[in-house]
Amino acid sequence: MNKIPYAIGTAAGTAVAPIDASATIGSFSGGSSVFAGLVFSKKGKPNTVLGITPNNGKSVLGEAPRPQEGPFFEPLRHVNQALSGGNGYVVRVPFPGMMIPAIHLTADTTGTPAVTTVKASTSATAFGADITVPTKAAMTIYVDDGDKSENRKLSLEPIKTKPGFFALKLMETDSLGAVTTIESYEVSFKIDAIDDMSLSAFLPDVLERNNSCLRALASETAVLPETFTSISQAFVGGSDGDFKKLTTKDYSASIAVLDGSIVDYTAILTLGIYDAVAIAQLADLAKAVRVDMFADVDPRLPADKALAQLAALGLGGNENVTAYYYPYSCRDPLGQSNVVFGLSGDAFTAKAKGVAMVPDIGGWHFSPAGKDRGVINRQNIKPLPAAANIDREVFAKAHLNVVTSSGGVIFIDDALTTCAEDNYKKYQHVVSVMNSIARNYYALASSIKHSPDGITREGLEKGMTRLLDRYYAAEALRKPRDPDQGDVPYILTVTNTDFDSWQTRWEVCVVGVARRIVGIPVLLR
Fold first, then answer.
1. DSSP line for 266-319
2. pLDDT at residue 300, as a whole number
3. What top-level branch of life does the organism fall under (predicted)?
4. How far apart are CA 490 and CA 486, in angstroms?
5. Residue 177: burial class (beta carbons within 10 Å; 0-12, 13-18, 19+)
6. What is the pTM of this model?
7. How many CB atoms lie within 10 A of CB 518?
């Protein structure tokens, strides 16, 4: 096949220049929503960013804790609600005392003539501590997916048709006693063994390559024989730890993982976590990465104490946070009993519905409230006594959002941010639009950074013009309400401020919302 050069010299020839994509700078899409937050769960590697979809939630995070087990049941209910709006990324917070179970394989040579057998033993290591291979052991296989594995068993059986290879199976017994093989591989204990696809068949490599819920460590000195009889060993000593011993330090470690991740998301949710320091740190992260944040005060609190809890959080300087109070019970969507849990997942879904209405740039100007988007999709909803004590004027002044009912449905009825300033930053949709533009601008500027002056100016001016035109076409921007500010929806200024420094300023007018509507009845003669 002929190679097609990108340029030609003095000789006769044909060339095709590189693709010129300069006209597409600023072509960002924004019709999808992704959430992030912390969870408590029975499965999922702790302090690791885990991708969650409607199809893999149970396999990644395990069975949802029951309400009777403790207050840590709540996060997965929020996740369940949020998944109606989009996929997410979560970090499992490890409880203090969490133990990781492991199985050790040791070669034992005895008798005359000498006979070598392989014996299995067990141990458990505190989460966060280094898992090591015991002195005489040749290999350690440990659980890596966060499951305490009290109902799991590992088996290794020689494959008769493939000398030196073993069938590794990880089996799990459910509450009814049924045994399921959840993982199965053909492995070898020889470091240079390869499989039929010419890939490494060495046991640690196979587990790593297949993203197994197990991992293995090999001794640098001890080895296992090429063949031995079958081994079947249950994991022992695993533990989820103790929720009651959680400290701010535990939350902070998990938030640091989310902060340092390279995944992209459009909203941070508190997901049923009410630790004040953790909420403040999540709010700081939301402001730093320019995304929405949906938070709850404890829905089990009386109305006056809910207001006090919000005030104590000290979020008045953060316009990215929208807080909710939802003193209602419902049927557990992941069980059968009645439960009480907050609205962060539902609020995210309400926002996601609006964002999805504009596939091009994203409907960030749609408020996550109202009967069209903010309906609470739960069954058997019943108010707690505190619901009767909500003074809507007081709650509005405190910027704590509540729900209302109409036509037999309950829906989110306000979207005020926690910003204490008396300006447009108190409206969630305004901040959401500005955050979206900021994220788009950051991507645009990053794509042309280190370019010469001419390319930089052209890229910033044309890219931002195209971008803001799309927001105007989506009706997220409008002409200013004040005629003294002109009659264009935005003003763009690009300035070369120094030898190596550029500044882009955009002045925009975000559309309003019909948050308050008055009818005036008048009788005529």
1. SEEE-TT---HHHHHHHHHHHHHHT-EEEEE--TTS-HHHHHHHHHHHT-TT-T
2. 96
3. Bacteria
4. 9
5. exposed
6. 0.92
7. 4
